[in-house]
Amino acid sequence: MKKKYVILIPLILASFIHLLNPVGYPEVFFDEGIYMRRAMNTIDTGNPQEGYLYDHPYFGQILLAGVLQITNYPPDTSTEPGSLQNLYLIPRLFMGLIAVLNTFLVYLIAKEKFNCNVALLSSTLFAVMPYTWVFNRILLDSMLLPFLLASILLAIHFAKPQSKMWIAPLSGIFLGLAIFTKVPAFVFIPLVIWLVFQKRRKYSDMLVWIIPVLLIPMLWPANSIVLNQFDLWIKDVLWQTQRSNSILEIIGSFLIIDPVLFVLGMTGIAYSAITRNKFVLIWFVPFVAFLSLIGFKQYFHWIPIIPILCIGASIWLLDIPKKIRYLQSKTIHLIILASLVVFGLTSTILVITHDISLNQFEALSYVIENQEENSTILASPVYSWILYDVFGVDNVPKDYAMILFGPVNTEKITVIADAHFMLDQNRGEKLVKAYNETQSIIVFEGKANDFDTRIYPYTNMRMNIEGFSIDIRTGEWGKQ
């Protein structure tokens, strides 16, 4: 195969993995429902700012709403589980296409900064290793990644002697959009500004680059000022920084999902420290330091550094023959590399080919078909936006937690008690009451229960808790 066509290998693999079963695996996560709800609100009202909550900037819902609008969303939908499941098809396909684009950008970055061999191996690892399924979720971290990668790629191009000046502000625009999608992307400013500075070592280049980086995200607080809600913006931004948990929790989650990539990637980081590879270290260290110190962390927060873990892993894997004598045989070395890729691909296929979200839509179908008049439905955002946006059901809070901040206006309630609801009961007594004062009507068991989650790669099912048991409960709410 000619060298110019080798990029097709990771692209074909990424397309297969991300577009094969976009809705069936992974299950639909709580936060995905939030971003779908906000995108639908943007379509319905033309206002990307939903209510008074300023937890994240709103470019993510603008982007998602644009995709939904282009596809004439929502499609005609019945109450059949398969039809309800298709409501997540367009957004999940969009996320899959973003993942394929990210694979291409990882290849280009590694090729420009290192060489074709590093580019091919790193983009292939990015495409096939089990962590890649996380990119299919409708999450801001996945949405910001192509903007971040494009900014880095353009900065690398700008550092070349014959590059054009317009590349610098364009790189800044892309990083500005990444930050406007999710604020923690600002920690990559040192990396990109260092790349930009390589060209002429002039502060004027940095100034041209940083103007859009700062101005674009400023639209978020500026909008809150226009709406006379700047105090709410300050309050919510500070609240986001004050929530915290240990980084050890998400290291554990990474090891559950993809222990091989974790070990390969961290070895690559250590190797980069030994060889003083500034590009790898400036990408990795500031983000992990930020992640360790500030904010509530979840396993998908690793997303922005997965590309550099793959690149770092590829660098040391390709350098091994220089250090270990018996690996100087090209045949042995290629067998080892091919084995890693085959292992990753096989592990990923073993989990992504299962439909573990179907029971979520079977539960939703049951609730829609058996809804009672004058009954409040308490459900996570995975379901709530479908109930009121698609089917026009009344008495559906945006989120079951809304009952903590206001009254329930009906005597009867229906609770979709999934795993997330059960975990959230410690948020307030009313959620405990909603569970205790209702009776189980039917339980929908998910296919995720069919696997021994102690055995790899089925350990990945542990990160799909909302695809396990879903208990539909009804009862009288009583006096508040």
Automatic annotation (TrEMBL):
Pfam families: PMT_2. InterPro entries: LipidA_mod_glycosyltrf_83, RgtA/B/C-like. It is found in: Cell membrane. This is Glycosyltransferase. One of its GO terms (molecular function) is pentosyltransferase activity. GO terms for biological process: lipid biosynthetic process. It is a multi-pass membrane protein. The chain crosses the membrane at residues 89-110, 165-195, 207-227, 247-267, 279-296, 302-320, 332-352. One of its GO terms (cellular component) is plasma membrane. Keywords: Cell membrane, Glycosyltransferase, Membrane, Transferase, Transmembrane, Transmembrane helix. Its main location: membrane. Residues 92-219 form the Glycosyltransferase RgtA/B/C/D-like domain. It comes from the Archaea. It comes from Nitrosopumilus ureiphilus.
